[in-house]
Specification:
Layout: E1 10-17, E2 21-25, H1 28-33, E3 39-42, E4 45-52, E5 56-60, H2 63-68, E6 79-83, E7 103-113, E8 116-122, H3 125-128, E9 136-139, E10 142-149, E11 153-158, H4 160-165, E12 176-181, H5 183-196
Antiparallel strand pairs: 1-2, 1-6, 2-5, 3-4, 3-6, 4-5, 7-8, 7-12, 8-11, 9-10, 9-12, 10-11
């Protein structure tokens, strides 16, 4: 099983998009690190590389991916966050990210506070139960620290470095974003449900 850390090292641009395949242009350094049949996280969704060229790569997508992520909204020219899988020697500076998107949230508010930004994201109540203040959550593949949680939304803070080096800077109110909650919280939630039955 592949895993990620939510630390974005590259961004890419959608060059072609259909309901079954997405192609991206990216820096040659990233392309060289890819292997056909290997995985890459695209806006936080773990996808399989099916082809690659000098400056581009392609991934297949299935209906389940389109239904559970924001990848179905991508069009040529859209920017995406990219992350290679972690290795045994990777420095875990984010948190454990599976690349299995739990749901699509909606940007409710983008607030600039001094040099930082705060995002408020609407999400299903079933997912907010797995999000806690000061805990970790993944938004479009980025490991972020939670500021606050409501019944149907949560907020995260974005430092200037993250804002400037990821595609978060292109978000607008109403934009769909991929959300993956902490895998440990999901296991705890499932165990609690079983004990209640």
């Amino acid at each position: 099983m592949y895993m990620f850390t939510g630390i974005i090292t590259d961004t890419g641009i959608v060059s072609k998009a259909s309901r079954t395949r997405l192609s991206f242009s990216a820096r040659p350094r990233l392309i060289r690190a890819l292997t056909q049949g290997g995985s890459i996280a695209v806006d936080g969704a773990c996808l399989t590389v099916v082809a690659k060229g000098k400056n581009s790569f392609s991934t297949d997508i299935m209906d389940e991916t389109i239904q559970r992520t924001n990848l179905g909204y991508l069009k040529a020219g859209c920017g995406v966050n990219l992350e290679l899988p972690a290795t045994a020697t990777s420095f875990l500076s984010g948190h454990i990210v599976q690349g299995h998107v739990d749901g699509v949230g909606t940007v409710e508010r983008i607030q600039k506070k001094s040099a930082d930004h705060v995002l408020a994201i609407g999400i299903a109540p079933a997912l907010t139960r797995c999000i806690v203040p000061k805990g970790s959550v993944t938004v479009n593949g980025i490991s972020l620290t939670v500021i606050g949680v409501g019944k149907k939304n949560f907020s995260v803070g974005i430092i200037p470095h993250t804002w400037g080096t990821t595609m978060l800077r292109d978000l607008a109110r109403g934009a769909p974003v991929n959300v993956e909650v902490d895998v440990l919280a999901k296991y705890i939630e499932k165990l609690i449900k079983k004990r209640k039955i």
